[in-house]
Amino acid sequence: MTRLTTGTVVVARYEVTEKVASPHSKAEIWHAQDTIFSREVNLYVIDSQVPKGALDRARATAQISVDGIARVIDVIDKGADQRFVVTERPHGVTTAMAISAATFTPRQATAVVGTIATNLIKAAEKGLHHGNITADSVYFKGQTVKICGLVPRNVLGVNLDYSPQELNLRDARGLSALAYFMMTGLMSNYHEQDNSPLPRLTEIVPGVTPELDALTTDVLNGTNTSITTVHEFLEALDAWTPDDLPEVADTHVAPSQESPEEPVPPVPSPPQRLSARSTLSPTTAPLPGSQPLANPAHYSTPTIGGAAAAIAASGGIPEATSPSNASIGSTGTEGIAAAASLPTGTPPRFVPATKERPQFGAYAPTPSPQPEPEPETVANQTQSSSSKSAFSFNSTTFVLIFFAAIVLFGLFWSLAVLGTPTKPAIVTPTGRPTPVEANGEEKPKPTEEATKKIVLPEVASAKSLDPQGDENEHPELQDRLVDGDSTKFWYSRTYKTPQFSNLKTGIGIEVKLKEKSTVSSVLVSSGSVGGKVEIRATNAKNPTKGKVLASGSLDGETHFKLSEPAKTQTFVLWFTELPQDDAGKNRIVIYEIGAT
Questions:
Q1: SS3 content of the chain, % helix, strand, coil (to 5)
Q2: How far is 294 from 95, CA to CA, in rounded Å?
Q3: Could you tell me the end-to-end alpha-carbon distance of the chain, in angstroms, rounded to an integer?
Q4: pLDDT tens-digit map of 61-106
Q5: pTM
Q6: Domains of the chain, with CATH numbers?
C-alpha cells in the first residue's frame, strides 16, 4: 500500500495536508486539497483494515446527490496499492457550537430535524442509512443544514453489523435525541435501554407541543414505541417550513483544534455560562471538519455544557477537572425543572438539589477581601522610591549626542562622494548591459520558446445553452457551475425521455476561461449518471460546431481526456442525450466544471 505523507499528491489532483483520526473505524484518513476545484476534502485510504467491497459501496453511495448530505466526490482504484475514496469536507459549525449562545426554539429544532429526516428518507430509498446520529453529525452554515457520517459509515463497513430495520430505528431515535439536545443541551445515549427517564420537554422548555414532547421525551424514555422508522418520525413531526431553520454564523470549524474551555475562575461578579463545546469529550478529538462522533452520556450522568451549561464558579465544581466531568446525576429532575421559568431561547441553567451538596453550576462563596497595607508601610515605600530616584541616571542627553555625531559624519561622507567623477557603463547597442558569465563569457540570449508565458487554464464563467429552445435551462443557477462550492449545483429541466421528449436534439454549457490557454482535460463533478456529452472546441454562438475533443457519459466525478491538447478560451459541453439523477429523472445535475 502506498504510504501517504504531507505533500503527497494523489492522482495528480488531491494534495495531502494532514492525517486525522477516524471516529468510525481504524481506517486511515487524511485531509487533502482538491487542486482542480480548490476545495478541502477528506481522503479515505482503503486498505486491509477496511472490509471488502468498500469501493463498490462507495460507488453506490456516490449516487446520492442530496444537497443536505455530505457526498462522495471520487472513487480511485489504481490497483491494490492505491485505493482511495474522496468525500466532501463539511464547513460550518456543529450543533453544540450552534446552540452555544442560546438553545433553539421548538420551531427551529423541528425544522432542523425535519430537514434531516427528509434527506435521510431519500438516502434510505437507495438502501443507505446513517446509523449513529449525534450532535456532532450535523453542521450548520447560514440557514443550511448538512448531516455527515452517512458516507464513511457505509463505505468503511461500520453499518454492516446492523440490519436495515435496525439502522432505520437507530436513525429515528437519533433524530429524537438530536431534537431534545437542540432545545435543552442534553444529549441522550439513545442506543442504550437502561437510561434514567428524561424530564418532559413541556415542563422545562416553553412552546413545546404535546406531540413534539411525545416524539422526543417519550421515544427516548421508551414509552412511545410507535416510531420505528425515519418516515414515521417525519409523519409525526409538527408542521415546519425551511423558513423556520435557524440562521447560524458561517464559520469553518476544525473540531480537532478545539480545546475544552477553562473553568471560570472565582469572581465576585455574576458567574458566566460555559460554551457548548464543553459537551465534547476533552480526551477524544473528533475528526476535523468531518463527521465527529459525540460522546453522549446516560441521562443518569449527562454531560452539562453549552446550552445546558450551568452557572460555573470555582466553588461550584467540586472534584472536577473540566466542565465535561461535572454531572447532575443525583439531583433528580428538581434542578432541571428550574429552567422552565426562563424565556424561550435562553440556555437552561441548573440549580443544586440540596445545599449540603452543591452541584455543577452552584454559586461560589465570595472570596474574603485582602487586608489593606498599613499607612506606615505605604509611607516607607514612598520614601524609599523617592530616595532611589535621586540617584537615577538620565541617558537621553548622551543618546542625542551620539546620533548627532552619526548624522554629521554621514553628511560629510555624502559631500565627498558626490564630488567624485563617475565612470560610464559599457552598454551594448540594444541599450542593456552585456550579460557576462562568471568566467568572462557572454550569456546566450534566451530563445523565443523560453520567453513564452505558460498559461494554465482557469475557469472564469459558465453559461447554460438552449439554442433550439427558449434559452431557459435554469440560467439563474449557471454561476454554481464554477463557484467552487461543491454543495450547490446547476440542473437542467426535466424531460420525459432522455431524448429531450423529441423537442430538441441537445442542450449545452459554454465554459469560458480567464485567458486563452492549452486545455488537455475537462473534469465534470456531476450528480447524474449516463447520457451522452461531447466536449467541443467552440463557443455559445455555434455550440454544435467545432471539433469534438472528447465524448462519453457522466458518472459522478467524470474525467474527460481530450484527444489532443487544444489552445482555446472557450469550450462547450454539448449533451445529445440526458443522463438520470439519483431519483431517476431525466435531467443533468452538475456541481462543478474544471479544466487542466
A1: 30, 25, 50
A2: 10
A3: 28
A4: 887 878 888 888 888 888 877 899 999 888 899 999 999 889 999 9
A5: 0.56
A6: 9-88 (3.30.200.20), 91-364 (1.10.510.10), 459-595 (2.60.120.260)
